[in-house]
Specification:
Length: 516
């Protein structure tokens, strides 16, 4: 809940803003008696949130250009310009109007604004400071005029916003959504038609004055005038405010403007200032007149709220993370319980199966070890069918060869390659557990359909046959040829004897294949 002090030249009103409604809380006269009453009201309200909305005559607006700067340099230049322009800079402010590009350099247009009589506002600010209240900002009705104009559909171009407030007739000149100039004219209780005539005449005077200052072009398109008429008086205002070549009037009922600004309920004796009060409480602009010293407690309060909000967000995130972890823990615990149930069920099934086994003279562990050893031995044992099929396929390509004997054996690779078939192992020798198991084929036969004295041809045929056997995963370990030529060039073998006896030349081939 925020309280807004509406300051006028005659009487000050304290309103409370809550949601979309505005409620009058207290009234204070504009003199010293009112300040005393205000101080008495602030007792017991330390830490309350207040804003001040000034609707007084005597506001000063002055446009200047400064070099295009940023940061501390810009702040220093603006403070110097404000000090040169105003004697009391407590309620002086500078508002940006955009950049200006020149041939030499880039400049920034700024609007210097303040109150010609700051002493009528200073005692109220001092009372808030002494009471420990938090001052959110000091605003004037013209500062809120661009926001109200945007709510009513005017966001660009030049326009006048005219409204009848408690303090008088407020006129604000807005250009491209930014305040350029404003003035307040005192009014008395007049009839709606007379008030409409007064609006027309004062708007024409303001347009002529701004044209003299060259803030408005003398010849150009008509300027839109947005008039907020008192409730129920829109029709009378439209009859009086006829558009011409200079001004284009558009009248909006105060109730319609309040709804556009988001205000749904206001005290019955308020005029158009209720709309500005609601905007100051709910949608205050960044531009305002209070300096850092006056807003120190409010800034500290904002930082505290930010820290608390960040802490609450972090706590919520941690709580959410913890909740997710808790759910994951519940899921894991449920899975563990299901796995334990399945394990007990499997154990019961295993005991039921083992109960049907015949009675043995050994333990279950020994049976498991025996089965594992048997599986290992079986994995290193090979059947001879595949090896015989390989020899048969190779023999189809060599019809002149006739086999007499095939010896099949399984053992360590090195022994199987070198030892003759049927050679027993050495007494007490144990197989190398790291050695590779292999199967061994020792093939013996003879060569037919070849001249007996062609020993070179016979030798070449045997070597080709041996090479064919050493394929498809088989490796040639040893070959014993029918004839041999020693390193001294001597031919060994009984060629003549073989011819006379009629026996074909014999050979022996050994191939080995490693078992998987």
């Amino acid at each position: 809940m925020r309280r807004i002090l509406y300051v006028t030249a005659e009487e000050n009103h304290l309103y409370t803003s809550s949601g979309s409604s505005l409620r009058l809380e207290a009234k204070f006269p504009a003199g010293d008696a009112g300040i005393l009453e205000f101080r008495e009201y602030l007792r017991g309200r330390r830490g309350g949130l207040f804003s001040l909305l000034a609707d007084v005559a005597g506001e000063d607006f002055h446009e200047e250009q400064i070099p295009y700067l940023r940061g501390a340099d810009r702040d220093a230049v603006l403070r110097r310009r404000l000090t040169q322009r105003y004697r009391d800079t407590r309620l002086a402010a500078a508002f940006s109007l955009g950049q200006v590009a020149t041939e030499e350099r880039r400049n920034e247009r700024v609007l210097l604004a303040s109150f010609t009589n700051t002493q009528q506002l200073a005692p109220w600010l001092d009372a808030l400071e002494d009471a420990g209240a938090r001052l959110a900002g000091v605003y004037s009705v013209p500062l809120l005029a661009p926001l109200l104009a945007a709510r009513l559909g005017v966001r660009s171009g030049r326009a006048f916003l005219v409204s009848a407030n408690r303090a008088g007739l407020r006129q604000s000149f807005i250009e491209n959504g930014r305040l350029r100039f404003a003035r307040l004219e005192r009014t008395v209780d007049t009839a709606p038609q007379a008030l409409a005539l007064f609006v027309r005449s004062e708007t024409q005077r303001l347009a002529q004055y701004l044209a003299t200052l060259r803030a408005l072009p003398r010849d150009g398109t008509p300027i839109q005038v947005l008039v907020v008429a008192p409730p129920g008086e829109r029709h009378r205002f439209e009859q009086v405010l006829a558009s011409d070549a200079r001004l284009t009037f558009r009248t909006v009922d105060a109730a319609e403007a309040a709804l556009a600004a988001g205000l749904k309920a206001a005290p019955p004796d308020t005029a158009a200032e209720a709309i500005y009060l609601h905007l100051a409480a709910r949608k205050p602009p960044r531009e305002q007149f209070a300096n850092r010293d006056d807003r120190h407690s409010y800034v500290v309060w904002q930082l505290q709220r930010g820290i608390v909000a960040a802490g609450a967000a972090a706590f919520a995130a941690c709580a959410l993370f913890a909740g997710v972890r808790w759910l994951e823990g519940l899921d894991v615990r449920g899975q563990a319980e299901r796995q334990a149930i399945e394990a007990r069920r499997a154990a019961d099934q295993y005991r039921g199966i083992t109960a049907t086994f015949p009675v043995t003279q050994t333990s279950t562990e020994n049976l498991k070890a025996t089965v594992a050893e048997f599986s290992r031995i079986a994995s290193h044992t090979a059947a001879p069918e595949a090896a015989f099929a390989h020899v048969s396929r190779v023999l189809d390509g060599f019809p002149q060869f006739e086999l007499d004997r095939i010896d099949f054996s399984v053992g360590q690779r090195d022994r199987a390659a070198s030892a003759p078939a049927g050679t027993p192992s050495a007494p007490g020798a144990k197989p190398d557990p790291q050695g590779d198991a292999a199967m061994r084929l020792e093939i013996s036969g003879r060569v037919n359909a070849t001249e007996r004295n062609d020993y070179r041809g016979i030798t070449a045929q045997v070597r080709r046959f041996a090479g064919a056997l050493g394929t498809s995963g088989y490796q040639l370990a040893r070959t014993q040829l029918p004839f041999d030529i020693t390193s001294e060039g001597t031919l060994t073998g009984d060629i003549g004897g073989s011819t006379e006896s009629g026996d074909a030349p014999r050979f022996t081939i050994v191939v080995v294949r490693t078992l998987p």
